[in-house]
Amino acid sequence: MAGDSWIAFLSERLPELWLRTGEHLMLTGVSTGMAILLGIPLGICAARTWWLRGPLTGGVGILQTIPSLAMLAILLALLQKIGAIPAIIALTLYALLPIVRNTLTGLEGVSPPVLEAARGIGMTPRQRLWLVEFPLSMPVIVAGIRTAAVVSVGIATLSAFIGAGGLGQFINRGLALSNTNLILLGAIPAAVLALIVDGSIAASQWGLRRRRSRGSRFRAAIDRCLRPVALLLPVALIIAGCFAYFSTSTASSNPAWGPPADDGQTVRIGTKNFTEQLILGELMAQLIEARTDLRVERRFNLGGTMICHGAFKSGGIDLYAEYTGTALTAILKQSVIVDPGRAHETVAREYRQRFAAEWLRAFGFNNTYAITVRKSDATFRNLQTISDLIAISGTLRAGFTAEFSERPDGYPGLRRAYGLQFREVRDLDPALMYQAIANREVEVISAFATDGRIAAFDLQPLRDDRGFFPPYQAAPVIRTEVLQAHPELREVVELLAGRLDDATMRRLNFEVDVKKRRPGDVAHEFLESRGLLEREK
Amino acid sequence: MISLKNVSKSFDGGRTFAVNDVSFDVREGETLVLLGSSGCGKTTLLKLTNRLLESTSGTIEVDGQDIALQDSITLRRRIGYVFQGIGLFPHMTVEENVAMVPRLLGWSAKKRRERAHELLETVGLDPKTYARRFPEELSGGQQQRVGVGRALAADPAYLLMDEPFGALDALTRDTLQQELLSLKERLNKTIVFVTHDIFEALALGDRIAVLHAGRLEQIGTREEILKKPATHFVRELFAKPAKQLAAFGGML
Q1: Closest CA to A36 of A146, A119, A132, A113
Q2: Domain boundaries, given as residue ranges, for chain B
Q3: B83·A113 Cβ contact <8 A
C-alpha cells in the first residue's frame, strides 16, 4: 500500500482507533488494578504462611498455563455472558502470577538484620509489613506489576473474540477479511501501547523513589517537580483511555463498554468471525435500522460457532445467522438430514423447545463445506469429485479450519465416509487457509461453497458424490422473547428470505474478501439495489 | 534492675542448651559486659532479655516484673537495642531511623524531629549534615552511631548492645568505645554489652560475666576476674592476651 493510501486509511479509521485504544486501556487498566488488589495480599499470605506458599504459587501458575482462548471460552461458558466482564476476569487471572510471585520474592528478599532490627525495636507484625518489608520489596513488586501489565496488553487483543472490544477487534476483523491493513491497525498500536504502559509504570516507580537527587540544585528542583507527575502517569494513562473511549463512542460505533442495552428498544446482532457472517449481520442490521424504530447494537466477530451460540443462548445477542447443518450437527448433536426443508423444520422445532428461539425463513443459499483443490491440480490430475481424492490422499497435505477438523460433519465424518487419509492435516485460520493453498503449502482445503475467494484464487471445489455434507442453509435465528416484543422484526428480516442465492452470496463475499471493501458498504449497496431500504408508509 | 534466674534456652527441644541455667543481676546504672567466644550463648541471652527469643525455662525480670507476663512489643520499646548487623532501615533517612521508636509510640512529627536532632548531636553526628542522608551514604562507624541513636530515642532505662563495634576497624572502634563511656556518664543508662573482645570487655565493663558453652563461668569486676579467676577457663582466657601483651611490651 502506498503512503498516501495508508494515510487515507488511517485518517478514516482514526476515530475508531481511539475508541478501541480506549477500550484496550480500560480492559488492561481494570484487570491489572484488580490483579494488584488481589495479588499483593495473596503474595503476603504466601510469604507469611508456609503451607499456603506451594498451593498459592502453584495455583496461579496453573492459571497461567491455560491457553488464552480456552480461558475466554471457559469463562463464557461459566458466566453465560459475553463482553468486557469475562475478558476482565480472564486478564486478571493471567496478571496474578507475576504479581503474587514477585510479592513473595520481594518479601522474602528483605535482609534478615533489617527484619530483626524491626522486631527488636518493638514493631508489631503489621508495622513491620507496612514500614519495612513492603517499602523494601517495592522494586520487585513493581517489576511484577510491569510484567503483568505488559502481558495484559498482549492478551487483551484476544478479548475481541468474546465481544469485549479493544484493539484486537481490528486484528480479528483483519483476519476474518484477510485484510493486512486492519491487522496492522490493531497490532502496531497494541505493541506501542505495551511499551507506553511499561514506561508509565517505570516512571511511576521512579516517582516513588525517595533518594536525594544528586547533582546541581537545578536538577534537584526539576526532579522535585517531575516526581509527582511521574508517580501519577499510569493513572493518567487510564484516564486518557476513558477519555478516548467516551469522546469517540457512539451507538453506531458499537462500544464494548456501553450501558447494557436493556431498554427494550435495542436489538443486539451477533456474527461469527468470517466475511459472510459479517455481511449477513450488516444486511440484517441495516434493514432493521431502516425499517423500524429499533436501535441495533452490533456485536460482530465473535470467535466461532460455539462462542456465538453461547452468547445467543445467554441473551448476549438476540439475532444472528446460523446454518442448518451446523445447528443440527455441531449444536444439537444430531445426525445429518439431507433434505434442506426437513433440516430447517427440525432445527426450528428443537430451537423453540431448547433455546426459546425461532428460526426465520432461510436466506436462500447453501454454504456447504466444499473440499477444494487448485484448479491446476484438478485439471492435471483429473479431479472432479471427493472420491477422486481417495487414491492419492496419502500424498496430499490438507489445511482445514479448526472447527472443520473437530466437527462431526467435518473431517472426522468425511474421513469415514470416503476413507480419506491425508499425509498431513493442519488447522488454519479461515482467512489463512486460502492463502495457504494459493501458496502451495497445502493441496486440499475445507472451503466454504459461497466464498468469493474460490474464484479469486483460481480454486476448484470437488463434488460431494457420496452426499456426506448436510445442507447448510443460512437463516436468521432470533430469541423468541425479542420476537414477541417486536413482532415486526420477522417481517423485516424475512425481506431477505430467498433473495440471496449461492451466486449472489459468493459475489458479495468476493467484494469484501478480494476487493477489500467494507462489509457494511457491500451490504448497503445490495439492499439499495433491491430497493429494500425504503420504508413503506 | 534486670535479673535472670536459672535461665535456659534450647533450640532443639532440650537435647542441647545454648544457654544453660544462667543466673545473674544487672545492677542499676552499671555496664555489664557478657564476654565469651562465638557460640557461648551471649547473644542468645541478650535476645532473651527483650523477648526476641523466649526462654525454655527460668525467669527474667526487668524492674522486678517477669517479662514473660508482659506484652513483648511494649517491652521492646522500653529497652534500647543496638544490633550486631546494625540493621538500619535502608529506605529511611538517618532522621527517620533515629525517630522510629518515638514514631511507634505515637509522638508528634515535630517532637520526633527535635528528638532525632538532639540524639544525632549526642552520638556525634551533625544533624544539619546527616539528618537527611540515607544509611548507604554513611561509613560503618557513622551507621553504628545512628544505630546507637535509634536505640536511645525513646530514652529507655536499659540498653542492650550486641557486639556493636565488632565490624568496625580498630581506630573507629576505639573512638566509639570512648564515646560510649562518656555517653554513659552523661545519660546514666544500665547497659548490657556483648563482646568477644577481652580488651573491649576490660575497657567498658563495670562488671564482666564470662560465658562458656552456655554456662556462666564467673561474674565480677575486672579486678576480681583478673585476680581471682573462678575457673580454669577464665584463667586461660585472660592468660593468653596477658602473655601476648608482655611479649609486645618486650618488643617495644
Answers
A1: A146
A2: 2-251
A3: yes
pLDDT tens digits for A183-219? 999 999 999 999 999 999 998 888 877 666 566 777 7
Half-sphere exposure of A505 (CA within 13 A, CB side): 26
Domains of chain A: 15-250 (1.10.3720.10), 268-366+472-529 (3.40.190.10), 369-461 (3.40.190.120)
ipTM of predicted complex: 0.90
Q: Which residues of B touch A122 (CB under 8 A)?
A: 73-77, 101, 104
Q: Which residues of A lie closer than 8 Å to B, measured between beta carbons?
A: 112-114, 116-124, 127, 131-132, 135-136, 210-212
Cα A180 vs. chain centroid, distance in angstroms? 17
Which 113-152 residues of chain B touch chain A by CB within 8 A? 132-134, 150-151
pLDDT band at B215 (very low <50, low <70, confident <90, very high): very high
Span B13-42, average pLDDT = 92
Out of B73, B87, B134, closest to residue A122 by CB: B73
Contact B76 A131 (CB under 8 A): no
Amino acid at B53: L
**Cα-based torsion angle of the residue sequence A270, A276, A278, A282 in order, rounded to the nearest 10 degrees:** -100
Taking the alpha carbons at both ends of chain A, their separation in whole angstroms is: 46
Beta-bridge mates of residue A444? A373, A398
Which top CATH class is B2-251?
alpha beta
**Residues forming beta bridges with residue A475, ordered by sequence position:** A322
What residues 173-202 of chain B have any CB closer than 8 A to a CB of chain A? none
The answer, for B88 touching chain A at a CB cutoff of 8 Å, is: yes
| Rounded-to-integer distance, Cα A166 and Cα A278, Å | 18
| Triad A277, A179, A191: Cα angle to 5° | 115
For residues A316 and A184, give the distance between their C-alpha atoms in angstroms, rounded to a whole number. 29
pLDDT grade for B116, boundaries at 50, 70 and 90: very high
CB B168 within 8 A of CB B85: no
Helix (H) or strand (E) holding B215: strand B215-220
A20: Cβ–Cβ under 8 A, 6 or more apart, which residues?
A: A165, A166, A167, A169, A170, A186, A189
Q: How far is Cα B121 from Cα B106, in angstroms, rounded to an integer? A: 23
Distance between CA B236 and CA A346 in Å, rounded? 105
* Whether B97 contacts chain A with CB within 8 A: no
Cβ-Cβ contacts under 8 Å for A482 (sequence gap 6 or more): A267, A318, A319, A489
What 3-state class would DSSP assign to B155?
coil
Partnered with residue B8 across adjacent β-strands are B57
Scanning the structure block, which residue is given the C-alpha cell 537527587? A213
E strand spans, A393-472 = 397-401, 424-428, 444-448, 459-461
Whose CA is closest to A148, among A55, A275, A32?
A32
Quick check: helix, strand or coil at residue A301?
Answer: strand
- Spatial separation of the C-alpha atoms in residues B217 and B233, rounded to whole Å: 8
- Cβ B132–A212 below 8 Å, yes or no? yes
pLDDT in tens, B173-196: 899 999 998 888 888 899 999 999
Separation CA B230–CA B208 (nearest Å): 13
- Cβ–Cβ below 8 Å for B87 and A124: no
Is residue B33 within 8 Å of residue B196, measured between CB atoms?
no
Residues of B in contact with A121 (CB under 8 A): 76-77, 81, 100-101, 104, 150-151
Asked if A122 lies within 8 A of B133 by C-beta distance, the reply is: no
Q: Which residues from A are below 8 Å from B132, CB to CB?
A: 212
* In contact, B5 and B59? CB cutoff 8 Å: yes
Q: What's the rounded mean pLDDT across residues A116-130?
A: 92
Residues A533 and A496: beta-carbon distance below 8 Å:
no
The predicted pLDDT at position B72 comes to 92
CB-CB neighbors (< 8 A) of B150 in chain A: 121
